[in-house]
């Protein structure tokens, strides 16, 4: 199974937690196709299964049933070792709480995945310098996370997520801890990545964030209840969308 052009797919994807009376089906028979280069937003109320879906798609959790395919390769049944390698090299993760390594500088945080992928310190340094430049933080490379604002931390986290040129960037409430100006910075970065052909899946309950996507799927109780392609999403300025003057 590999629909032409889909970089990320799921079929009959299910995740159950607990058992008996306490059984929760966090993700319930989800079929998803994310074409290469698409920016997809996943929305829905708290507890509807958005984060669980993202974890399944990125190989952070294993499904109870169903399949996940990344670039034509079935990943849900990979060994732990193969899955860890895939997460390091082929998937970029961005989290609401940033999850930077507090003891490492911005530059070292971005270098780390490159080193873990087996590349040389020199290559890691070059890649980190380029990415920090692209997220507008070249002058903060030596700063530790606590010396950065929330928005700056998230930009470092995005640079880190892009370190190994992932097939797909998965973001879980990436603007959930940010003020409007920092949200705008993050959305501009996502917009730039999308323009460069990056595939993105963004979990958000911020409608303004969802409005910047190519397509929005809405979840309720573990399933998709709506799937809408946003025509003309690229026409309005992000600043207008967020109620700011650009
Ligand atoms: N490890 C777990 N054990 C038991 N139940 C879980 C576990 N993880 C998630 N759940 C349950 O699965 C459902 C989906 O949770 P999930 O975190 O995916 O929702 P969400 O839409 O991301 O919510 P939010 O927007 O609040 O982050 C919820 O009912 C949650 O309580």
Automatic annotation (TrEMBL):
Q: Which domain of life is it from?
A: Bacteria
Q: Which PROSITE patterns match?
A: ABC_TRANSPORTER_1 (PS00211), ABC_TRANSPORTER_2 (PS50893)
Kindly state which keywords UniProt assigns to this record, in alphabetical order. ATP-binding, Nucleotide-binding, Transport
Gene3D superfamilies linked to this entry = P-loop containing nucleotide triphosphate hydrolases
- Recorded GO terms, molecular function? ATP binding
Q: Does the keyword Nucleotide-binding apply?
A: yes
Descriptive protein name: ABC transporter ATP-binding protein
Domain ABC transporter stretches: 8-246
């Amino acid at each position: 199974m590999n629909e032409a052009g889909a970089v990320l797919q799921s079929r009959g994807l299910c995740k159950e937690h607990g058992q008996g009376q306490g059984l929760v089906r966090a993700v319930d028979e989800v079929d998803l196709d994310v074409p290469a280069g698409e920016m997809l937003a996943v929305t829905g109320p708290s507890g509807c299964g958005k984060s669980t879906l993202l974890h399944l798609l990125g190989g952070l959790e294993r499904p109870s049933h169903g399949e996940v395919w990344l670039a034509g390769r079935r990943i849900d049944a990979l060994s732990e070792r193969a899955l860890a390698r895939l997460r390091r090299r082929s998937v970029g993760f961005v989290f609401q709480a940033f999850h930077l390594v507090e003891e490492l500088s911005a530059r070292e945080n971005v270098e780390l995945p490159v080193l873990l992928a087996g590349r040389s310190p020199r290559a890691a340094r070059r890649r980190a310098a380029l990415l920090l430049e692209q997220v507008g933080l070249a002058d903060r490379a030596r700063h530790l996370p606590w010396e950065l604002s929330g928005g700056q931390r998230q930009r470092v986290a995005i640079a880190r997520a892009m370190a190994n040129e992932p097939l797909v960037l998965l973001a879980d409430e990436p603007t959930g801890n940010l003020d409007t100006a920092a949200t705008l910075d993050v959305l501009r970065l996502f917009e730039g990545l999308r323009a460069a052909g990056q595939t993105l899946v963004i979990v958000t309950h911020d409608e303004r964030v969802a409005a910047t996507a190519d397509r929005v799927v809405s979840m309720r109780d573990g399933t998709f209840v709506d799937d809408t392609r946003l025509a003309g999403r690229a026409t309005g300025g992000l600043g207008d969308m967020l109620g700011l003057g650009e």
